[in-house]
## 1
Amino acid sequence: MIRFLLIGAGRIGRIHAENIVRGAGSSLVAVTDADARAAAELASRWSCRAVKPDEALAQTDFDAVLIASSTDTHADWIERCAAAGKPVFCEKPLDLDIGRATQCMRKAEAAGVPLYLGFNRRYDPSFARLKHEIAAGTIGSLETLHITSRDPAPPPVDYVRRSGGLFRDMMIHDLDMARWLLGAEPVEVFARGSALVDPEIGAAGDIDTAMVMLRTADGRLCQIANSRRCSFGYDQRIEAFGAAGMVSANNHTATSVTVAGKQGYTTEPALPFFLERYADAYRLELEDFIGALNGKKVELATGEDGRRALLLADAAQRSLTTGVAVALS
Amino acid sequence: MIRFLLIGAGRIGRIHAENIVRGAGSSLVAVTDADARAAAELASRWSCRAVKPDEALAQTDFDAVLIASSTDTHADWIERCAAAGKPVFCEKPLDLDIGRATQCMRKAEAAGVPLYLGFNRRYDPSFARLKHEIAAGTIGSLETLHITSRDPAPPPVDYVRRSGGLFRDMMIHDLDMARWLLGAEPVEVFARGSALVDPEIGAAGDIDTAMVMLRTADGRLCQIANSRRCSFGYDQRIEAFGAAGMVSANNHTATSVTVAGKQGYTTEPALPFFLERYADAYRLELEDFIGALNGKKVELATGEDGRRALLLADAAQRSLTTGVAVALS
Amino acid sequence: MIRFLLIGAGRIGRIHAENIVRGAGSSLVAVTDADARAAAELASRWSCRAVKPDEALAQTDFDAVLIASSTDTHADWIERCAAAGKPVFCEKPLDLDIGRATQCMRKAEAAGVPLYLGFNRRYDPSFARLKHEIAAGTIGSLETLHITSRDPAPPPVDYVRRSGGLFRDMMIHDLDMARWLLGAEPVEVFARGSALVDPEIGAAGDIDTAMVMLRTADGRLCQIANSRRCSFGYDQRIEAFGAAGMVSANNHTATSVTVAGKQGYTTEPALPFFLERYADAYRLELEDFIGALNGKKVELATGEDGRRALLLADAAQRSLTTGVAVALS
Amino acid sequence: MIRFLLIGAGRIGRIHAENIVRGAGSSLVAVTDADARAAAELASRWSCRAVKPDEALAQTDFDAVLIASSTDTHADWIERCAAAGKPVFCEKPLDLDIGRATQCMRKAEAAGVPLYLGFNRRYDPSFARLKHEIAAGTIGSLETLHITSRDPAPPPVDYVRRSGGLFRDMMIHDLDMARWLLGAEPVEVFARGSALVDPEIGAAGDIDTAMVMLRTADGRLCQIANSRRCSFGYDQRIEAFGAAGMVSANNHTATSVTVAGKQGYTTEPALPFFLERYADAYRLELEDFIGALNGKKVELATGEDGRRALLLADAAQRSLTTGVAVALS
């Protein structure tokens, strides 16, 4: 039984809390948040303690930490957990700055503290099956990868300003998928983007529509397409094409209902957003974090995976700005 | 090269004319119709002779006859072709009356004249593949069959009155499919029907919505569902279920386009009606008729197939009227 | 907060236990089972009391009873709960005997005790949406209903012998779906069945393949097809056809993955069996039971619904035996 | 009635011959080919004259020319037709060299001779419906375009050597689709490619796997993916994504059959290659060529469209070679 300290009582924190409580191998002992009321509320919901942030790591009755606080606090928390010798499962990203991200990761390494990152898509059952089929040789040698990722609606411009930009905030998930499914590091990144959805996003110096092309050393190619708006739900699809075939994962829907009429056959839009699409993934990644602490080999992203995805996002940003493809060593 | 005399210059006759002309192994030498102008027009379109009905069989430069005239003339034409020693491909049915149907069929047999019936669905590429997969053992032993057949809109009540009723006019195609795919004769027919689409059809003594259940001697079961109206096109589907799996044929559409939006994903309705859905079937059945004349083994329905389908339709009608299941020897 | 006594610690009991514990509005206080060890194990899993069957209703700290014991004990437990004045949610059926089923239901009525039956399919999100669309008028007036229900594999013959037969054990779910979706009582039942899957089932006097046709007073028709074996998973589909369109619910799958290769495009088989397909339904029906106790209008089947579904199953059995359609008043 | 001279009796020439003969508004008067026997055979099949290449344009009884000869002869034939004042429908491309292509096009312009190019995909019913939906505003403002185009198997290396390379030989079709569907000229081309399918193709200086990214002046983006090998048939898909939705065209299949079994649900692979997938397109583009000669507004690609597609292919080739994105004015 792994006892958890939960850092962050916001939307994602609440999901993790529920999964910790309901999991057969985990329990929630305490929760903390900069907003004391949010912490108290969540603690009350699951009958655990609410603690102040600066007292959180002084607790002794927990085995692991789940960090789901705001992005700008991740690195600090990781370093404090490292100092306390507590294994960490941290929501992505480590940090928006590659230097700071690397630094906190190194501290966890130096302390011998396991550090995993919440790239939850690795635990989506459909994407996990893609990975499995590729590894099993179902499509022969993987040649090209095609990732589509579109949010249902753009975030507030205020959020966009603090987000680090589309590549670091949104596409970073797809960049992790690319590395994970390709099983290799891209050596080149080419990126293009526009503000087609919301001119305010453009005015804030960011983009809302983007395409990226990646290339591996052995010549395999990957396309990624992002949009901050999608009228038919949360569009999350991947297609992996190989010498002997193709595996693809389509969107998920709430039901299997079709309505037929003069207009033709209509099936449901994609699930609305990540809370619905990745509900299973949030639960399964937590199970594997517990498994990892018990020595199981897992697909969880590590701190290093987080750092490498951020490197790709930075390269994409540089390619967008400079207009040229960026080589990665 | 098989030279054809075409009897009937209506909607179906015109389809057959075009297929005869375009086929590599056939030519059209003459066409006749009770309506001399229709015959003349069709003859002019394809540069062949228009002849009067009573002089049609006096021609000598043709090898086979295609009968696509009105239903009540089929039996007479078959008997005249039998007398003239000319092979016949006749649109379904032989006749609406089982006695008359049997009689004309016997005359063709006695004259040694090949007689085939236009149960065109046997040549629909999707249904033909069902037959092939069942024969190939793909689904193991066939256990149940499920046939859905819905017209886009009810015919005029005037047509309904002369049609012989839904079972003889419409479901007879499905009854042929059932016999053909089951590979066995049903020994029991149970039928129910209602006039739900158009009360005028009910007032005319017919039904527009029907279900039939068939059973074979070895206990296999078949469901048929018919409606005279369908808002999403011509609904033509079959599902064959067996010990090791299922094969099913879905509707056909004009394009492979999907429109995604707030409403979900919308694909096209089924093709509008039989001219579109069975365009390939009309062409392929004609090819096989020519093949049959050249000794090829074919899936074409014979006169006997037409007689047996009519027996089933009669039994369905009797079951509907009497309320009990009808046994067939 | 509704406090539950759970009767039955078997496979279904364990599902309900988990849903009771995890539900926001419910808690599990005690569990009982003829097998004391099973009760103790489940009680230990969820930190509640295990009690002996004959002492179960002597407890006072619970508000409702969930009956998930073996079928032959349902009626007794219902009567005991009625005497104790405790609301009941009972797994289907009330009893295999219509007389006994009616009797226990009447006792609950007389005692003013709410009695609901676990026809869980009403809470499958896909079937629930069918009901919703029909009620919303999406397909205009409902004309025909088509229900397919196939188990992945036949149960042991020993189970078959005690089951009451396919109609009362398996098709009763589909008969409830038919009544619920038609929104009317069938006035006629015609049934046919065979032992095509397992001759042992036939030797035991039962069937494993069945078709039923239902008719309502206003002439609407319904087909049901059952098989005790299906190679591609748990085949649970419904199609509702109306004047203005059709709504259908297809099978559910574990992922949205497609594998494309020389063979074509392959998607996943249906979910394996009811535990997977109806996991959501088990959870949602319990929520509505709690809602019902709080005065919410719900879609839960009542004791009377259970009695009427059993009447239809009995009629189907009689039709199979006698060969004629059975009229229902 | 438009009377045709057909230049080229190869695979594509034979398709056009059949469509000319079967079309209601066209007839075939003569055919020529460098291979006199091929010309004679085709002429015999359709009862028209076979003529020698250098005498072909001396004929006077034709109204238009269809050029389906080898690529390196297109420009010459176009110039000769221009001199003879005969309208031309020419298979793509004008020429592999942009200078020569421009030159012959200018001569046709100067002579006032209509010149259309066989970018047949514009007449694929599915892609044509995409164009229609975009124009109709179904998806709001078009933002991104995603084109997948994979051949079933690589051509002989010998062909590859003479082909002008993947961009000019294969992707040029997709580049035309991009221009046509975007309704705007790309201002930037970025291309990457590898020889992953056949090392011989790499040894010949070409690639067999490619990705291209296009950008328009207003920031819209387009991805194109090509492969010379695809295990599941001829993979021809397009997805157009806009502010209000998405329209996509999927592959076409020979039948609507699904096989269900332990493996799941299997539908057919894509149609084998262009002759099957674009059979309708070949017929429809010819109808529109005839329509264009009669003054109809058509979607046919013009000589200028051919030139612009070639400019994009040249730019892609340059981007591949230099490693940088190529700007187009």
## 2
Amino acid sequence: MRGAVLHGPGDVRVEERRDPEIVAPTDAIIRLTAACVCGSDLWPYRGLEENGDPAPMGHEYVGVVEEVGPEVTTVRPGQFVVGSFWASDNTCEICRAGYQSGCVNRVLMASIGTQAQFARIPLADGTLVATPGMPEPELIPSLLAASDVLGTGWFGAVAAAAGPGKTVVVVGDGAVGLCGVLAARHFGAERIIAMSRHESRQELARRFGATDIVTERGDEGVARIMELTNGLGAHSVIEAVGTQSSMTQAMRSTRPGGHIGFVGYAHDVALPGDELFFSLVHLHGGPAPVREYLPELIDLIWRRVIDPGQVFDLTLPLEQAAEGYRAMDERRAVKVLLTP
Amino acid sequence: MRGAVLHGPGDVRVEERRDPEIVAPTDAIIRLTAACVCGSDLWPYRGLEENGDPAPMGHEYVGVVEEVGPEVTTVRPGQFVVGSFWASDNTCEICRAGYQSGCVNRVLMASIGTQAQFARIPLADGTLVATPGMPEPELIPSLLAASDVLGTGWFGAVAAAAGPGKTVVVVGDGAVGLCGVLAARHFGAERIIAMSRHESRQELARRFGATDIVTERGDEGVARIMELTNGLGAHSVIEAVGTQSSMTQAMRSTRPGGHIGFVGYAHDVALPGDELFFSLVHLHGGPAPVREYLPELIDLIWRRVIDPGQVFDLTLPLEQAAEGYRAMDERRAVKVLLTP
């Protein structure tokens, strides 16, 4: 099969990879209908994270089940499925508490690489969710978004305790941040402040439910949030970047007793204990337990209540994955969909 | 009046201080029935925190109202009162959300110094709570504990989401940690693991409700917690020390999706963002909103449901405050009560 492989910083190639096979009786093989490039793929692409080159790339996926192992009972060949970027058994104590991304048997799908024609999905029963039928083509991008960025933005909004009467700040205007806006809106937040300097992303944020846009950053960004919140700070902040400055922005924009949902994959971040202590904020985040939300997200997409697929603003054939990485790296695209 | 003043590291003197007076119409003056030395007083005492010598010391207090300003309506002269170590208006939006320690008008009582015969209490209506009558002498230590260490341990247990069916680890066997054990027990935690190497503190922890004692620390301490929790980690961890190693201990002892209540006043702590991210824990803490809990705590003490006053294992006249500091510094005493 064909698949994207990172050979070193900036060097993504689509090449022949071995067809996946059932390894464990709980595996499934899917034929990908669509895959995509994630903001977190840019960390190794930019050489900012060791990945062990050459490495197969991609962890988001939707597709049709080709084959299942003998112990798989909840999905069958021919079904259209969406799965999380962490494979999970969905039965352990951690999964049952709603933290499938911390499953004791979890497998990181990035280690398998779903920017490809086929993929092996470990722990298929605990990882995949079948859609009610074959989706209309226009639903594919939204279902694909559910595999990671939507589920991650959703978790950010849950962790930030977004809800009625709340003012929610979203730090980061990538696909996750934008999906955080959408989730905060879905949860009934009163005011949603998107921090963004990019006109097209601001527009999408507004379409997803942002009521205000803040273009300032750093101390000026904090000052602007304070102005908009009677000097108190926001009730809820979704941090969707993962840098020291974005975490600082989040901490200083949250009122005492408020909640930060941090879902930007943290790199080289050190949180000063004293500042965190005196901030009195709630901090929760990490790799999103997407599997927990998938049934609800699929239902909302299927009924066309939400349309997160709008985060994809560039579609390319899998063979042009390298161009997709470049477009995201240069911020020419919010998110790139790849068709195998 | 007489009061304790820190003149430099290790140099506490009880000397003449000016009698306090009503400054703002919302002030009250109280005559202290008892004061005490806090673990956090040891930071400047040990020269680990700049305090601006000479500095009046103490922020915990119970006593009888002597005088109130013209705008004070909820307490009156002659009443016995307990107050928080933060003065708060208890009316602002932050207070109403239960975060009086983040009150927009808060005043740190440590800046006033309650290891003294009298103290001015700013924002008396929002800070003080009167007891139902004059307390029996044996209730004084428990009511004094409510002013900080009990309220802080309580907040730790709330922030750690201690409750029925939960395994709670308490890091730190000082008065706050021990009160955290008591609070976790009150909230119905199934299992309470106190981390302590001191026999007398272990004994008090057991009396307060600890079901297990772990004497190991660092990696060995984490390994022991994992053994006791099926390799998953605790649901809830109360961190009551405030050092890098205690925070690390807390983070690594908590299961994915679990809660850390951190109430140890953080000093020189930097939390690694990536470890925090992948731990999937909830982190919440800071200076406790004691005022939020005071009515309930006073009621529980008054009805003799809880007896947190047992944390005081040394009582000295105020004049011997210096010996009280030494005893706590050398860990000869858990907590020292001072009688003016």
